[in-house]
Amino acid sequence: MRTSMKLLTLLASGGVSAPANTLAPAIGTTSTIGTQINGDDGTWTNPQSYTYQWQRNTGSWGDIGGATSKNYTPVDADFGYALRLVVTTGGVSANSNATNLTQEAPAITFTQKLANNGMSADTDWAKGVGWTIAAGVAAHTGAGNSVLSQAQATEGAGEYYSTLHDITARTSGEGRPRVGVTSGAGFSAVGTYRSIIRKTTTDTTLGVFGTSTFEGSVDNIFGYHMALNTQLVAPSAQMRIDQFYTLPVTPVAGTQVWVMPRISDFANGNYWVALLSYTGSQWDITLYSVAAFSLTSVASATNISTTNGIRIDMNGNSIKLFTTANGGTNWTQRDTTKTNSTYNAATGVNTMWTPDVTMGLLVFDPNPT
Prior knowledge:
Elements: H1 5-12, E1 20-23, E2 43-45, E3 50-57, E4 61-63, E5 82-89, E6 92-95, E7 109-116, E8 132-133, E9 146-151, E10 160-172, E11 177-180, E12 191-198, E13 205-210, E14 215-227, E15 232-233, E16 239-246, E17 256-263, E18 271-278, E19 283-291, E20 294-304, E21 309-315, E22 318-324, E23 332-333, E24 338-339, E25 348-353, E26 358-365
Antiparallel strand pairs: 1-2, 3-4, 3-5, 5-6, 7-14, 8-9, 9-13, 10-12, 10-14, 11-13, 15-25, 16-21, 16-26, 17-18, 17-25, 18-19, 19-20, 21-22, 22-23, 22-24
């Protein structure tokens, strides 16, 4: 608490009594990007008009530029930092309690870009409203290489998509249809499949791709453009990142959650990623270091139970991977502790998921074990 010289002079000359704070301002302890924190004046004797200043603790408390209203909505720059409110009246100031470290509720916008139903074996693959055979490729009338596509002129290289499709029959051949851009993964067995794919500089279409020996039926094809969550900057490369989520009760093969700590250059494919994926019968998780989109497995576990959280500890060059099934009350380490210096100064953080996953909070802690 501090009192201005002007007010002290008034007091000495028998003027007004100085304000006194009898109960400090109290704000909520939770700070989440995009969610307003309601300010509080506290309790004062002899108060005058109030002014407000929100502060961020980046090692010491400092004013947040422009944050001079009673209420405050945390922004991306607050990620991983505690916040507080300073209330001033009559030249006397009082600090509120500090919030917990600011977290995020990640968001992705999924926009449907293509859809089709009923593409059977031994028929023209151009079946379906809005679909065309890709330029230079013959119509598909059985086994043979063909591409059924719907042009995506508005999406450029580097854009991400999530797809969903059914293989309802597979009559012969060892090939497999691929739903997505040309670099997308495909599936050979009958079943329902999801995937996350990235449109590269050489991809010109988003559609269904048949390999040279596949014969079968593909149905219920959907493609969604993914407007990704904004990449955050963590306060330090020494980080514990927790990502919480709810998995679908009845998942389909290809359902995924990505958690990306220590992003060095996302656009050029240089980052870490913990990838949780459903194979069709079990959940597997792998922690990769990624260089130019080439993945190197660092830690992994297979056939793990259904989870609702992933934790990655990056303490210098010491790397640990965990999952939780009870919202973070208990964590299970997956694989052994690894030593790896890749991107050990990088501070980018983000996450990605397929549309059937409900994403929860993304939490930073600067003190990994």
